[in-house]
């Protein structure tokens, strides 16, 4: 039986929050601005509200099957055959997300930091860190997340605060962006931005009970929405939407503009720290989720060979991507629009089937 230890509320909250907000440092804001214009900063709040509803389905499912994780619940509710299929869909999707995010990181990193370095070199160094952190396990990831969270949050606040002199309040107009219907549709479709909340169900046994999982889920989504919305508002105030939709790594771009005289400028190293650490935690926990689900599906007790084989796969898949345009407009767009089906609809369908078949703890149901 695979054991992952026990995690406290703070470790769980920061692990999930960092996994969610890491998108802010890549192409996420750029694509959001391209779709909804300068309404991006409050569209994400609508997405968070939809994700909170999705989390309610996950919470009710976990409550119906106490002391079980999502893979075991699929089998108990749907039967072994369909449970295996649902688990396989979730596992493959987590593998796809981790490889795409790694490819996105390497492309954006190459644009700003190592323009002459080949992708295999950048991805190779990063994948070694993913391998090491995965071997250490979930508990080490969570404690590392808690340790890194406070300097990361402080650094982000410093960048947003020092960028204040570049803010232009006129950039938030027109408030409705590209139209109210577009804003609402995008907010609903892109609730998958907060889809990493499914990690609480994947590692449910490590989070000390359903009462704590409920608290961790609510806090994680709320805190992530606050950070993402504040960051997007800062981007909107700094760059007109017709410029922002042409830029990658808006946090880095904002840091480049900070200039308070000859003794205080060029604070991009702060953003690099936030950027690299958040990407490492995000990619590793998503990849490790794939490893755990795969081991549960095939009843494998030793995760080490699966971790080694898994990092080899995502390394190879990350190199297949043609360029940053392909990653953004094909893979990431697919993830944002259809990811909610995997993260929220699969648990909802499982919950409905469990209720119909009268599976699980009837008292909790």
Salient structural properties:
single chain, Amino acid/polyamine transporter I, mainly alpha, 73% helix
Explain what you see.
With 365 residues, the chain is mainly alpha-helical. The protein has a single domain, classed as Up-down Bundle (Amino acid/polyamine transporter I), CATH 1.20.1740.10. The protein is built from 15 helices and no strands. The protein has helices at 9-21, 28-36, 40-64, 70-78, 80-112, 119-136, 138-162, 180-189, 199-202, 210-238, 241-244, 250-257, 268-297, 304-320, 324-357. Helix 3 (40-64) runs parallel beside helix 15 (324-357) and helix 13 crosses helix 14 (304-320). The longest helix has 34 residues, at 324-357. It is globular. The mean pLDDT is 88.
Give the helix/strand layout.
Elements: H1 9-21, H2 28-36, H3 40-64, H4 70-78, H5 80-112, H6 119-136, H7 138-162, H8 180-189, H9 199-202, H10 210-238, H11 241-244, H12 250-257, H13 268-297, H14 304-320, H15 324-357
Helix pairs in contact: 1-7, 1-10, 1-13, 3-8, 3-10, 3-15, 4-5, 4-15, 5-6, 5-13, 5-14, 5-15, 6-13, 6-14, 7-13, 13-14
């Amino acid at each position: 039986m695979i054991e992952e230890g026990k995690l406290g509320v703070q470790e769980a909250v920061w692990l999930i929050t960092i996994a969610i907000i890491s998108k802010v440092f890549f192409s996420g804001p750029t694509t959001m601005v391209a779709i909804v214009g300068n309404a991006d900063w409050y569209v994400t709040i609508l997405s968070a509200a939809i994700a909170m509803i999705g989390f309610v389905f996950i919470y009710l499912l976990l409550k119906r099957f106490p002391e079980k994780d999502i893979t075991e619940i699929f089998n108990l509710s749907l039967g072994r055959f369909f449970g295996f299929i649902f688990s396989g869909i979730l596992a493959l999707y987590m593998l796809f997300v981790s490889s795409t995010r790694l490819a996105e990181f390497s492309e954006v990193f190459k644009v700003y930091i190592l323009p002459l370095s080949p992708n295999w070199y950048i991805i190779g160094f990063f994948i070694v860190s993913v391998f090491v952190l995965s071997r250490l396990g979930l508990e080490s990831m969570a404690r590392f997340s808690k340790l890194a969270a406070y300097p990361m949050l402080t650094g982000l606040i410093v960048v947003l605060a020092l960028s204040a002199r570049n803010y232009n309040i006129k950039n938030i107009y027109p408030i409705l962006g590209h139209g109210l219907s577009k804003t609402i549709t995008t907010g609903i479709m892109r609730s998958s931005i907060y889809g990493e909340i499914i990690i609480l169900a994947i590692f449910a046994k490590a989070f000390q009970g359903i009462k704590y999982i409920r608290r961790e889920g609510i806090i994680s989504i709320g805190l992530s929405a606050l950070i993402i919305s504040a960051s997007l508002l800062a981007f909107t105030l700094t760059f007109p939407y017709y410029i922002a939709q042409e830029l990658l790594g808006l946090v880095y771009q904002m840091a480049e503009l900070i200039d308070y005289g000859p003794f205080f400028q060029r604070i991009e190293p702060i953003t690099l720290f936030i950027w690299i650490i958040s990407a490492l935690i995000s990619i590793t926990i998503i990849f490790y989720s794939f490893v755990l689900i795969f081991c549960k599906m095939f009843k494998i007790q030793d995760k080490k060979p699966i971790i080694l084989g898994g990092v080899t796969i995502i390394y190879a898949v990350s190199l297949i991507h043609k360029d940053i345009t392909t990653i953004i407009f094909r893979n990431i767009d697919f993830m944002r629009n259809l990811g909610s089906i995997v993260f929220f609809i699969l648990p909802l369908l499982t919950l409905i089937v469990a209720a119909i078949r009268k599976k699980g703890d009837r008292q909790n149901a």
